[in-house]
Amino acid sequence: MEEKFNSFFQPQRQSKTGIVLLFLYNIGMVIKNLWVFVILFFVRKEKIEPWIIVLAIIAGLLILIVSAVLQYYHFKYYIDEENEEFVIHEGIINTSVTKIKKENIQEVNISQPFVHRFFNIYKLEIDTPGSSEKEVKISALTKQNAIDLKKYLLTETKLENTLIGDIEITENQEVEKLRSIKISTLSILKYGITANYIQSFFALVSLLIYGFSELTNLLKKVEFDTQLDYDTLESQFLAFSIPVILGIVVVVIIVGILINTVRTLIKFFNFKISENNQSFSFEYGLFNTRNSIVNKSKVQVITETQNWIQKKMKISFVKFLQIGKNEEDEKKVAAVPGINNTEKAKLISTIWNENPVFENGLKPNFRLIIIHTFQWIVLPLLLVLFIEKELFINYWFLVIVYIVLAELFILISFRNLKLFYSERFIRLKSGIWDVDNRTFEVEKLQTVKISQYFWQRKTNLGSITFYTSAGRFKMVALNFTKLKKLLNYCIYKIEIR
């Protein structure tokens, strides 16, 4: 029997409860951008007449309400069936029209943030290859509208079967699932504890610095004398013994890890993976429930990340880079945290119908260690010695610690740096603590380039760069003769596909 969907071929608006959502969103934007002035207002409100305060609040609320209503009525969306385009009209004063070709739509993600749950509405985001951010965001849709619109947009032209039959968020949808995986809360907790140590540390330090800076500015605005002498603060800090300083650093790291663990658990809570013939979906989140799809045919690179502790726990972090997705933009990359080795093998096999096995490998030449030593140790220390000689002499112990740690990191990085290849796949391994294994199919490469500097000719060394639709990946100081053979093979596979 033919499925019946809501008709999107006529312009229509979002759910009416979206007016309230837009109003709350506008309030949030005001607080986010003007929070310092709001605090200052309440701190010094005794100098302002009460009736002015009440009038300002009423006027502000009225402006936000009118703005929300106008945003709602001016936002319309529909499908242009003749041109096969999805069209969005939006804007109050400066109106805009966005048109997206149906064939260019790569992802349609449905999510239900925490606030949306109170109104039983969903947010839908449409992504296309090469875009720096989401092309279209519809903030207030009913469950059925979100499901049906996703079906329309991801259904191939003139085909009856949809690409998204496995990720519907309604209990009434009957779906034939080939495979389903659920990442346990314990696995997500293990990943949260063992991941992002450095990021957690610097994020916490940055937050402390930002908060301290904003607090100082606020105290100045309310005419408090902070009397903060940074020279005195520095001398007092350096007066601490090294164990005390290290203890403070450890405490900050531990707090950062705890914060990262809680954040990871909230973000990826109840992580479910569902698969059908052409795609698989991720559904996760405690307060902000997300539901995204990954089309198997559009996956360009699979990155497996694992550190020493995670290796002992037999868990890893897997990212799927699709067409137009950059690995650096973590918000847009489909990823699975805390997946065990068995589940990971099943997941990868659903995309490539096999787990990659590599018969050949290349390692960089040891000269790369010398280059990195000069780049990260010799050159920085020479610059410090030239600019501030006294600093170099007074803190010679820290210089020695830096040399030892930097050289250790260089050696570990060199040990992990490898290139593997087989008839169908190529894998690049790199990293110091978190080791990344990036795997991609030879046939999906856009092009491959090799290069050699004139001083590398005697040593027969060179570099190779692989270009994919999800970015480029490079490895240096490899045997140039073998690189030529690999280049010829890759170009041959690209031309005959």
Automatic annotation (TrEMBL):
Keywords linked to the UniProt accession: Membrane, Transmembrane, Transmembrane helix
Keyword Iron belongs to the record: no
A family per Pfam: bPH_2
Keyword Transcription regulation included in the entry's annotation: no
Annotated TM spans: 20-42, 48-70, 188-212, 237-259, 368-387, 393-414
Species of provenance: Chryseobacterium piscium
YdbS-like PH domain segment(s): 72-153, 269-324, 415-489
Protein name: YdbS-like PH domain-containing protein
Coiled-coil residue spans: none
Domain of life (superkingdom): Bacteria
Signal peptide: none
